[in-house]
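>> received
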Amino acid sequence: MSDSNEATVKYALNALDCILESLGANIAIYLPQLMERLVVLLDTGAMDVKPIALSAIGSAAHSSGEGFAPYFGEVIARIKRAMALTGDDDTLALRGVATDTAGAIAEAAGREAFRPHLEETMRLAIEGMDIASSGMRESGYCYFGVMSRVFEAEFSQYIGYIAPHLLDTLRMDETAAFEQDIDDGSEDMENTDDDDDEDSPFKVNTAVADEKEVAADAAGELFASTGAGFLPYVEDIAKELVNLLEHYSETVRKSAIVSLFTFIRTFHKIAMPEPWKAGVPVRVPINDNTAAMIKLVLPAVLEMWKDEDDKMVVTQICVELRSIMKDVGPAVTVDCKYFAARERIAPK
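>> returned
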């Protein structure tokens, strides 16, 4: 990483970032030398080098956990400065990575160590959500999800700021976003004859799809971590997640599935029921909120399964069904008419 060739430094940092994330406790002997060099690159490196260096610092924090404590102070100060940056795309890229890395640092440092920095970093992250950038909003959702895991119910105070952004993203019209990008972009595309079909399925904005995937993931994490604090927004967000089950992107569909089953599981956890008992009829009833969420989610998931052609999505459905039945019991599937209609589950 001391090479004078910028391209070589970037390649080395990308490789290092991947390695550091999986080192675990083995990182300890390398950490002092690594942090010394990474901080220098963050301070003095080229603008397109700084985000990679900061990402590597986040991976080092993730692997080292409590061992990152000696570096916490100097790193969090730099992160907060980067989270306040405005400017061109390169500057916003650094701000986005700083927002992501703040979450990694918080998990490594722990709730008590990070609490003095929570209010300021949350303010900066929420301000970043108002920047016209899908990448910035993705970073914000990642940060919110991590912070909810770290602070749990205490994080509920911020849900009122975050949930409206979630709904805006989940409801975003990707075709309109694509057309706006074309209008703001190259004039060479205005007179092309190949794009005359207004109903073309390819007129979509993949950046928005990525944003929806991250938002869907965050919705599940936020409800699971904050519980009752998220309740005012559950119904509206759950309906939008159900709509995403028909999304063209398999990663968006997969994220929606995971979060919808997380909603069922979280409602069940909030109700604190007795342990379920095997068999039907159901001997330990579930509460009304859990039953209503099952009624919303299960038919929609099983219906989309009929035509689902992505193996990873099908696998995720099976994983979630197994997990939710283990957690909630037979009440999940007591209405067997949905399963009877599923030929792939029980072929004749």
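>> The CA atoms of residues 89 and 119 lie 26 Å apart.
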